[in-house]
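Sample pair:
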Amino acid sequence: MTPDALYLGRKAAVSLKFVVVGGGPSGLAAAYALTKAGHKCVVLERANVIGQCHGAFNVPSNLTKIFAQWGIAEHLDAIACKPLGIEFLKYRSGERFGGIKWNELVFDATGKDYYIADQADVHRLLFDLTRDAGVDIRLGCKVSKIDPVAPSVMLETGEIIYGDIVIGADGDQSIVRDVVLEEHVPGVSKGMAVFISTIPVEKMMDDPELKALVETPLMNEWMGPDRIMLALPIKEAGLYVVYLLHPSDIADSNEDWTTSDSVELYRKQVEGWEPRVQKILQLIDHTADVKQVRREPYDTWIHRLNRVVLVGDACHPMPAYGLQKAAMAIEDAAVLGNLFSRLKRRDNIVFILQAYQELRQSRCAYVQGREDNAHVTFPLREGTDEDLDGRDEELREKYLSKDITPEKFQELWEKSAEIFRYEVELEAEGWWRDFGPLMSPQDDRRVSVLRDIGVSRRTVVEPVAPFDKCVNGVSTRIDVNRM
């Protein structure tokens, strides 16, 4: 598929104007998808420059498929690495006690390659894609007010930008979300935070031990007492990315990627860890400490007047280290584009917004739950050295292997593979085939029917593993997995 063939070449019969608050990957992706569907978009981004935040940007195979449809997957080989696997290491000695080596079984099962790139590189890639599609991207725009009635956005300068629909793509600390929910719902601290840092790889090449970490595209995970350090090279971007998940009881620890914090505080977290860890931290000259906040899935992503809608972390926040964090946001964008390519009249808007929420909520809630719990089962266990040794032995028994056999793959990867196999275009097309005919001129009737579908499926069907009823990549049911 080429970008011109998106949505089977379909364009909306009525063109709307979308005002997108937030010019991160989710906002740019939403604007691009909707523009390709035949609409006009303006993106309002508060930063003055695009692509200044560095860190690991995961591109799992479900996202690689979208990038391929948008014509940008070919750029990934130049800016991203394909990780070979993950190694579990003892924090004091650096001894390997477990690991997973990925091979063709993983890629064959999920349909596309898995990449890791630098956040800044992918942000610039999406910026160029969206700008070239004709989207009006305005930088240095700080939003002060959202009007869900008009609908419109007021900037701090007093300028008001009007549109037909406002999209909140403004991240975990979304101000648009407060408008949609008509209240501020604070997150609950997990008691953890994550330091996020990058090191230019040239700083590591003179040390043989550190050079070996750079030369091999493996993720290394040092597991300490109530702490995890995860590090990986993105040699194509010239960076070594380091995360340190650690306890935090600081109430105002920032949730913003752009906030710097004390490197000395960072180093104190890993005192007594193995020599390579100490060498790595000596090369870090700046970091950001991002508080980990749990936000339960929201009941609605759409304002009651149906002119403001949320995408990405604004409606389903994921951890900073989440493997599917960006993928879920860009899947949202792709679904919006597909659905709004079908717009025939303005009175279709309510039905299409409800369809978007129906398609996305259960999948995102499921993935959000998995991402939240990804690093707590084994590693974050306090106790004596003997307790930690016991934890390590559990991991060794489960994960110590040179490669993934078919049996081991079935055990470890089936749930993840189901997430990675997802093909957003097929799912949207399948949903519309089944439920699109319900869209009728009677606005109240069609929304009532759609909501009844969602309610009946939530109450009658027991939760099951997602997509276990998929046939040839197209779901035979919609929303049976409300978690």
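DSSP finds 15 helices and 20 strands in the chain.
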